[in-house]
Every structure is written in C-alpha cells, then in structure tokens.
Specification:
Distance between the termini: 29 Å
Number of strands: 9
Helix content: 40-55%
Shape: globular
Structural class: alpha/beta
Strand content: 15-25%
Order of helices and strands: HEHEHEHEHEEHEHEHEHH
Largest sheet: 4 strands, parallel
Strand order of the largest sheet: 3-2-1-9
C-alpha cells in the first residue's frame, strides 16, 4: 500500500466522525463494552494505544464489535506494525515517522497516520506521498494557531491533531480548513472505564460526534 493509498484510506477513516477516541486500555475485559459504547455514541474509529500489555488483545476484542473500526496507536517499530495488523488493526497511528516504520506500513498494507510537528516534518512526509498526517503533540507544538500557520503554505496536507485536545479547545481545531478530525482521550475517561460506566461514555461520545466541523 503506497503512501498515497494510505492517505486516501486515512481520510476516509477521519471522515467517520469529528473525534477519534485515543484509548489506553488496562484490562482486556473492558475492550468490547468500551468499543460498543463509543460506536453507539457515534464514534466508530477507535485508536488503541500500544502502551499497555493488554493493548493487542484489546484490539482483537474491539475488531469483533459491529460498526467499529479499530486502529493501533503509538506504533514505533516495524514489529509494532506487524503485531497490530495481526491483531486486527485496520489503521495505524504514530507519534512521529521513521523510514523503517513507513516501510513496514507499506509492506503490511496498513494505512498510517504518521506524526509530524513542524513544517519540515510535514514537508518530508508530503514528499513521500502522505497527504493526511497526525499533528502531534498538538497543544505543546503551538496548538490550533500553529496548525493554521502550517496550513497556509502547505494546504494540500490535512491533519488529525492529537495531544492536549479536550472539550475546551476542540472547536479551535475542528474549524480549521486543514483539519479532518481530532484525536482525544476525554471521551473515555479512566475513571468511567474503571467503573464500567458505559452509558456515561456513550453520552460523551454522542456529544463529541455532534461537534461541527
């Protein structure tokens, strides 16, 4: 899968909803009910970060949830890419981009949202064919103002910004012409997941799914 093909797939995934939940899952048993709650609330694209021992099994469980499209975040190595694809991930997200990681995604036919934080990084990925990228860490890299500034000279690249985004600033990003969607963890707070309060998470997801963009 070429970078251009990956970006076309990524654009389709980003078009599903204004927000892609960024999920850190500690217990495998939480994965399926969490996915069902988020999908029912209107957020079908789910990013499970590879930050816990349960992550790959969580991806396997979420891949079985009707209506959901589960992806793997925090891809750092080719081994991560292979493991995520084998677990059922349908897209990948990385905080940055290395040649080895990009080559692995091409080889595994895994659509990737590669991370970039500067104009130079955005241009380097654009040269390779990636027209849909992750802007990370969004708030620490200057926030919506910085992303708007990057969009002025590089309008052909569109983004899913992630990092420090929540209810208080999400509208600042979604109103930008070069933003397709945002990634955020506020729709699945750790306390609600730990309590198994899937109804509350579904309500948060529904509110997020109705955000204008």
């Amino acid at each position: 899968m070429t970078p251009a093909e990956q970006s076309r797939h990524a654009a389709g995934i980003c078009a599903l909803a204004p927000v892609v939940p960024v999920l850190v899952i500690e217990r495998v048993e939480d994965a399926a009910p969490l996915a069902r709650a988020l999908v029912a609330g209107g957020l079908p694209a789910l990013e499970v970060t590879l930050r816990t021992p349960a992550a790959l099994d969580a991806i396997r469980a979420m891949a079985e949830v009707p209506g959901g499209m589960v992806g793997a975040g925090t891809l750092l190595t080719p081994a991560d890419v292979k493991a995520a694809k084998a677990a059922g991930a349908r897209f990948g997200v990385s905080p940055g981009a290395t040649d080895r990681l990009l080559a692995a995604c091409e080889a595994e036919n895994l659509p990737l949202l590669p991370g970039a934080a500067t104009a130079t990084e955005v241009m380097a990925l654009l040269e390779k064919g990636y027209t849909v990228q992750k802007f990370f860490p969004a708030e620490a890299s200057g926030g919506a103002l910085a992303l708007a500034s990057i969009g002025a000279p590089i309008p052909q690249v569109r983004f899913c910004p992630t990092g420090g985004i929540g209810p208080g600033n999400v509208a600042d990003y979604l109103r930008l012409a070069n933003v397709l969607c945002v990634g955020g963890s506020w729709v699945a707070p750790k306390d609600l997941v730990a309590a198994g309060d899937w109804a509350a998470i579904e309500a948060l997801a529904r509110t997020a799914s109705e955000l204008p963009r």
